Amino acid sequence: MILRRISVAVLAVCAGLAAVVAGNTWIKGSRQIQVAPVQPMKVDAQAVAERLGGAVRIQTVSSDTDPAANSAEFDRLQAYLVQQFPRVFSRLKVEHLGSHSLILTWAGSDPKALPVALMAHQDVVPIAAGTEDKWTVAPFSGQVQDGFVWGRGAWDDKGNLLAQLEAIESLLAAGFQPRQTVYLLSGGDEETAGQGAQEIARVLQQRGVRFEFIIDEGLLVTEGVLAGLDKPAALIGVAEKGIGTWKLSIDRAPGHSSMPGTDSAIGMLSTALTRLEGHPFPAGITGVAGELFDTLAPEMKGMNRVLLSNLWLFGPLVRQQLEKSPSSNAMLRTTTALTVFQAGNKDNVLPGHAEAVVNFRLLPGDSLDQVEQHVKSVVANDAVQVSQRGARAEPSPVSPTEARGYQLVNRTVREIFPGTVVAPGLMVGATDSRFFTALSPNIYKFSPVRAHPEDLPRFHGTNERISVSNYVEAIQFYQQLLRNASSAL
Fold this sequence. Notes:
The chain is globular, with a radius of gyration of 26 Å. The N and C termini lie far apart (69 Å). Helix content is 37%, strand content 21%. By secondary structure, the chain is of the alpha+beta class.
């Protein structure tokens, strides 16, 4: 009788739980804004593709070791832009900072309105040595072939830069004047130190400039990337992870390999690194990740919708699955990456010195000081010296999704990419906009670039390209964004 009562009680609890889960799933409605159909401005697809190809052919590769490397190529690019966009460079105020940074200012009709800023960088990463012959076309050919513009920079980030210039050039030709002043800000070393963007930010801050919102390169319009979602998803970066690097080193007495001890430099440092990998920062579906999945949940199909709509119950299971993928794991925690290990130079000699480099990408809410304390406490070995190394940046503030700037980007995406789901996301890489947090609380990291799973390795990789049709959409996105910013109150 007692067992029967317990069984009935358990069934009742399960039935009640199932009802709550079903109810939560049912009532969680879509957070997608409704937009009326718009007629995008007409774009000459072949002409704009050829202009982008011309920019790709100019090899503006930035260098970590020599800031002046390829300086002549940057000069060529800027001369090319002046030639290809005559209205922009004759009617906007043009300022050159440092070696190759640009500030273009398009005066608005309302001097009291806060300006907006479009950002894109001119430099590109080099081609990995030995991979040149793996490209479908030569990596700096800028060739328009099979419906794509091919080459380094077609996506990152000349595609954005020229799309912005094309948008402004066409709006000028149409007689459009923005209500808010529009800045186009472009550095020449985003892929290395970002000194150009820092100089732009410093100058504008000295002038007292404040922006209503800033949009820089960032997350994409993904297709087939998110499991359980059968629609394209445009993720708008509302924050950027911080970055910090530490060197771990150890010194022991060197010796002959025929008489090894139990505390070698390599062994002790390897233990320290193993401990760091085995004790990562905690993961959680909170903050930006929580808002992302809360926004996506109503758009999901099947069990994915049930699980994401009831994270109060299924959160640990969902988190466990997300941790299995490097890309989704990076959204949930401050990540630990072992990137360099150096020790020894002879087969039969125990080295007296070993060192390694560990790179962390910090989740908003964590700090560089916390990471350093984490390293020291996890390693727990005074013989291992821990020191800072390289560029460092705290995580960016989280820009609000309720702000007008986010809503303008959101609306514009829904207008130019009909049927696309829009959600906030976390930028796990670094962008130039990280230097502009003092100039605006509303900084959004988004590139109007479509990406399928097979496209993601092309970023900084082989066969970088953008489809001509998508490039036209990118231009229309910036056209519509500027028109929306001038009309929306």
